[in-house]
Amino acid sequence: MLPTLHTERLLLRSFEPTDAPAVQELAGHIDVARTTLSIPHPYPDGAAEYWIKGTGTRAEEGSGYAFAIVHKENLELMGCMGLNVSKPHSRGELAYWVGKPFWGCGYGTEAAKAVAAFGFDRLGLNKIYAAAMTDNPASSNIMKKLGMSLEGEFKQHIVKWDQFKDLVYYGMTKADYDRMRMPNGTLPS
């Protein structure tokens, strides 16, 4: 069972079947889909329901944790912050999207900090990393604000909509995380 994580403004919880229409609308927006590897546009009917069902299976297996980013006050779904885990290597990859109406408000960074804490403190991971297309600086900024270090750029590493795209990788180890942590156990703002 996926725990519910709490931040100042957010609840990070399991996705529910009733979230499917919002997932399809928010993730399927062309500006969100354009900057992610695996989100299609247009977003097919039924795909959100299928994906949500899979999130529960991956959490049960311990191979992936997809948290719905929900505003505490109005319980509105705003995006997804996921952690895909490689148990043999004790590492996790952050993967996320935030709906366009919620861009520029710091929700992605706030959610990333909570999920990184979950990965290091609850799952005992040694490393967390993330990748972003170089033409998506907002995603890279989340990684930087989380305290991740640039680990490299992979030229023309993926194909998105018939175009080769460069990726940047950022990462942090448990030791990095522990050095940055404040006395109350949280990461600095």
Protein described:
The chain is α+β, with helices and mostly antiparallel strands and 189 residues long. It has six helices and eight strands, in the order ββαααβββαβαββα. Strands 1-2-3-4-5-6-8-7 form an eight-stranded mixed sheet, with helices on both faces. The two termini are 29 Å apart. The protein has one domain (5-180): 3-Layer(aba) Sandwich (Aminopeptidase). Helix 1 crosses helix 3 (47-61) and helix 4 crosses helix 5.
Specify the overall morphology.
globular
**Major sheet strand order:** 1-2-3-4-5-6-8-7
N/C terminus separation: 29 Å
CATH class (first level) name = Alpha Beta
Number of domains: 1
- Classify the fold: give the CATH topology: Aminopeptidase
The CATH homologous superfamily is called: Gcn5-related N-acetyltransferase (GNAT)
Number of helices: 6
Order of helices and strands: EEHHHEEEHEHEEH
Which value, in Å, is the CA radius of gyration?
Answer: 16 Å
